[in-house]
Specification:
Layout: H1 4-19, H2 26-32, H3 37-64, H4 67-87, H5 91-122, H6 129-157, H7 161-177, H8 193-210, H9 212-237, H10 246-272, H11 277-291, H12 298-326, H13 332-394
Helix pairs in contact: 1-5, 1-6, 1-7, 3-4, 3-5, 3-13, 4-5, 4-7, 5-13, 6-10, 6-12, 8-9, 9-12, 9-13, 10-12, 11-12, 11-13
Length: about 400
């Protein structure tokens, strides 16, 4: 009989992999449907705006009543998004599709990680959040890369068909999700909903005040990672790479996902040996800064993308895991999503700006943007570590 945590991991990896059937060409698909770069920025901003309002309330309801139900609902919302993307033929239809995508992401958000972590700790799998998520990340991104390659091959013959195939697989994963262990009525509370949110806001403010550097680093790393995810296809198109085929894009996307899988493997090995992960983070972000100047050449672009996703993958997992493990179990998904809301708020404002920077200044403008966020991340993490060292020495 499969362990509970194994079933949850399988559902999570299958869900992410099915979504990645369209991952290598989603932006190119929008451009082919006569959606402009500026409109793509609006679509993504709309997605983050919806998530901004629903993320924390949905995570709270999942924490209070059932994380499993939230995950199942997220899967079916994702299937709806994929179906609509396959039939959409106008900007407003794509806008509707992004609404369901936002609902899916809001329902999943920090809920899945909280659900997975709880089941693993219950089975004595290991309470180290960094080790739990690095192992999951290692397998997840490899599977996502394989599915991205498969999706790109299908996309060459029928660009709409792959969206319907992805939707069908997601629906099947939704059926499997019903076999995950139940956690209904796991948390009880006599507090009114309004009182809870007042209490939650005060708690989040206290978390931010107690470690502003780490919280700020999570937000900036999230913005950097999402910027790379949303615009890597456009960046390659602007690098005199017009001759690249869809399979070439799929291979590049596979390399990107492989970089994030390697990031998980690196964290797992460093964590086992109880060594500082930050050393690796600083090293590779510094390499990104130096490589960004050779950005125009396709080889330089690929190296830039690989190291960018590798380093941000490490940084995001490390800093987020530290925050995750320090939040209360009964409301862990809610606390994580609250910090995620801060990231989405920044993204909501910055994505149109990034689109403008790319449209006006090209790849070099994007390089400067990434370098700026990288410097900010290094500064925040180093100052955060110094502050924690001072606190520990005083104690």
């Amino acid at each position: 009989m499969l362990k509970k945590a194994t079933i949850i991991s399988f559902v999570g990896i299958s869900y992410s992999s099915a979504r990645m059937l369209i991952g290598a060409f989603s932006v190119l698909y929008l451009i082919k449907k006569n959606i402009t770069i500026e409109q793509i920025g609006i679509l993504k901003s709309f997605q983050f705006a919806v998530i901004l309002f629903i993320d924390t309330p949905l995570s709270y309801l999942a924490d209070k009543y059932s994380r499993k139900f939230s995950i199942v609902a997220a899967i079916y919302a994702a299937a709806t998004w994929l179906l609509l993307m396959g039939i959409a033929n106008s900007f407003y239809m794509f806008l509707l599709a992004e609404f369901f995508n936002a609902i899916s992401l809001g329902l999943m958000s920090g809920t899945f990680n909280a659900y997975l972590y709880k089941m693993k700790t219950d089975q004595n799998y290991g309470g180290n959040a960094l080790l739990v998520f690095s192992r999951y990340q290692k397998h997840q991104y490899i599977a996502m890369g394989v599915f991205a390659l498969i999706g790109s091959i299908i996309y060459q013959y029928a660009d709409n068909l792959v969206w319907f195939l992805a939707a069908a697989i997601v629906l099947f994963v939704g059926v499997l999700a019903f076999f995950m262990p139940s956690d209904a009525s796991k948390i009880s509370s006599s507090k009114p909903l309004g009182y809870f949110f007042h209490d939650l806001i005060l708690s989040i403010i206290d978390i931010v005040k107690s470690n502003p550097y780490r919280t700020s680093a999570i937000v900036i790393l999230g913005v950097l990672l999402q910027s790379l995810i949303q615009f890597w296809q456009i960046i390659i198109k602007l690098c005199d790479c017009a001759a690249l085929s869809k399979i070439d894009y799929a291979m590049i996307f596979f390399i990107i996902l492989l970089a994030q899988s390697f990031a998980g493997k690196t964290i797992e090995e460093i964590t086992k040996k109880n060594k500082k992960v930050n050393v690796t983070l600083f090293l590779f972000i510094s390499m990104v800064l130096s490589l960004s100047v050779v950005y125009k050449d396709i080889v330089g672009v690929l190296i830039f993308l690989f190291i960018s996703f590798y380093s941000t993958g490490i940084g995001n997992t490390v800093v987020s895991s530290l925050f995750f493990s320090s939040s209360p179990e009964s409301l862990r998904g809610t606390y994580v999503s609250s910090v995620g809301v801060m990231t989405k708020l920044v993204l909501f404002a910055s994505l149109p700006l990034i689109s403008f920077i790319i449209g006006r200044f090209g790849i070099y403008g994007f390089a400067v943007f990434c370098c700026t966020l990288s410097f900010a991340t290094i500064f925040l993490i180093r100052n955060g570590e110094k502050k924690l060292d001072v606190v520990h020495s005083e104690n």
